[in-house]
Amino acid sequence: MLLHAAFAVVVVALDRNVQDLGLPASIVFRNQTSYNRFWDGRNYLTVIITCVRNLTRSFLANSHRSPVADRIETERIIRVLIAILYATKNHLRAGWGAEIIPGTAVNPSPGNALVTAEYSDLLPKGLYGCDDRGLGLVLQLTFFVEQYIKKGFDKGAFHAPQANDSFDADSDCAPVRLPYVLYPLKKLEEVLALFGCVLPFALVDKMDYWAILVVSLVMFTLYGIDGIASQLEDPFGYDRNDIKMEFIVEDIRSEISVLLEEWKRASQQGYDMFVGKRQNSVGQAGNSADVNGCL
């Protein structure tokens, strides 16, 4: 009896104050908040990628004439920088447990999630993960980068760039992937369903059979806006409309790999990067030594 009485109270209240409910405004607010989360996530990911590219450029440009031992260390750190991108992707997708085995990723499947090797060849030998103790792999890898920067700065090889911006952006991404903490937004779908149940009672007296069409259009619009918000609120997922992190990371890996190969060529042959004789497979090694190394 109390349940029916409460439902009657809701119907009467909506009939009297349906214009003042504010539900459409709440849905639009959630949609705008979700869009901001998506855009912030994309911007922070761009900051991480830019930091990795800039650090790679700085390390390679200032070390291609270094001793062999230093060049080996530089190549190792460049691979760590690429690994940071993969670790960031796994972290933002809440692949908890995958970082315990460094270089692995959790890939979704119709059944249980699968832990597969993804970037193990990029990590320092003997590295073990500490994710089970609360230390993320991203922060763990930045220690190697900072140590390399300190060594290079002490030797006077280059000015001391910092990897802080990259980790700061990764930290800023963390709130984006968290669910909403505002209770009204979390319960918005239930409120929307209740609104759809009582809306016909508020319209049927004045609109008769037209209330069916009006209610259908109103609820279609509101559910559509709420659905858009649901899709945008987690930009790091696996849906088709989420940020394509696999393609972005693979593209940056290909770009840095080209830089690394060119750096190794220039270091071995004594040329500057992107200029000088290029080795190729068509027997043109006897051409002029001024041939561009990337064409």
Please explain how this structure is put together.
This protein has 295 residues and is an all-alpha fold. It has 9 helices and 2 strands. Strands 1-2 form a two-stranded antiparallel ribbon. Helix 2 packs parallel to helix 8. The chain is elongated and about 90 Å long. The chain starts with a helix and ends in a 26-residue tail after the last helix. The model is unreliable at 281-295 (pLDDT under 50).
Give a short overview.
The chain has 295 residues and is mostly helical. The chain is built from 9 helices and 2 strands; from the N terminus they run αααββαααααα. It is elongated and about 90 Å long.
For the structure shown, list the relevant keywords.
295 residues, mainly alpha, disordered C terminus, 63% helix, elongated, two-stranded antiparallel sheet
Task: List SSEs in N-to-C order.
Answer: HHHEEHHHHHH
Number of helices: 9
Which structural class best describes the helix and strand composition?
Answer: mainly alpha
Q: What is the spatial order of strands in the main beta sheet?
A: 1-2
- Number of beta-strand segments: 2
> Runs with pLDDT <50, length 5+?
281-295
Biggest β-sheet description: 2 strands, antiparallel
Name the beta content range: under 5%
> What percentage of residues falls in helices of 4 or more residues?
55-70%
Write the layout of secondary structure elements.
Blueprint: H1 2-17, H2 23-61, H3 68-92, E1 104-107, E2 114-117, H4 137-155, H5 164-177, H6 183-186, H7 188-207, H8 210-232, H9 245-269
Antiparallel strand pairs: 1-2
